[in-house]
Amino acid sequence: MRLGLPLLVALVTMVAGAAELRIGNGGEPLTLDPHRYNLNLEEKILADLFEGLTAHDAEGHIVPGAAESWTTSVDGLTWTFRLRKDARWSDGEPVTAADFVFSFRRLLDPATAASLAYFLYAIEGAADVNAGRTPAEALAVRALDPHVLEIRLAAPFPFFAERLIYPTGYPVPAHVVQKLGDDWVKAGNMVTNGAFVLAEWQPQGFVRARKNPRFRDAANVRLDAVAYYPTADRSAAYNRYRSGELDIIGDFPPGEIAWLEREMPEHVHISPLLSIMYLVFNVAEPPFDDARVRRALSLAIDRQLITGRVLESGEVPSHSFVPPMVENYTSEVAPRTVDTEAARALLAEAGYGDENPLRITLRYIAGADSKKVQVAIAAMWSAIGVETALHHAELNAHFAELRQGNFQVAQAGWFGENNPEHYLELLMSTTGDVNYGRFANADVDALMAKAKQTAALEARLALLRQAEAAALEIDPVVPLYAVTIRSLVNPRITGWRTNARNTHPARYLDIQR
Amino acid sequence: MSRYLLRRLAFAIVTLLAVVTVTFFLVRLAPGGPFDGERRLPPDVEANLRAAYDLDQPVVVQYGRYLARLARGDLGPSFRQKDFSVNELIAMGLPISVGIGLAALSLALLLGVAGGTFAGLSRDGPRDRMLVLGATLGLALPPIVVAPVLVLVFAVTLGWFPAGGYATAKHFVLPAVTLALPYAAAFMRLTRGSVAEVLQRPHVVTARAKGLGPLRLVTRHVLPSALMPVVSFLGPAAAALLAGSMVIEEVFSLPGLGRYFVQGALNRDYTLVTGAVIVYAALVLAFNLLVDLGYARLDPRIRHA
Amino acid sequence: MREALLGSPLARVCCAVLALVALAAVIGPWLSPWAFDAVDWDAIDVAPSAAHWFGTDGVGRDLLVRTLTGARVSIAIAIAATLVSCLIGIPWGATAGYLGGPTDMTMMRVVDGLYALPFILLVILLVVLFGRNIVLLFVALGAVSWLDLARIVRGQTLAAKNEAYVEAARAMGVGTPGILARHIVPNVMGPAMVYATLTVPGVIIAESFLSFLGLGVQEPQTSWGVLIADGAREMRSSPWQLIFPASMLAMTLFALSVLADRLRDALDVRRPSARQALRRA
Question: Does domain A5-26+195-272+485-511 correspond to CATH entry 3.40.190.10?
Answer without folding.
Answer: yes
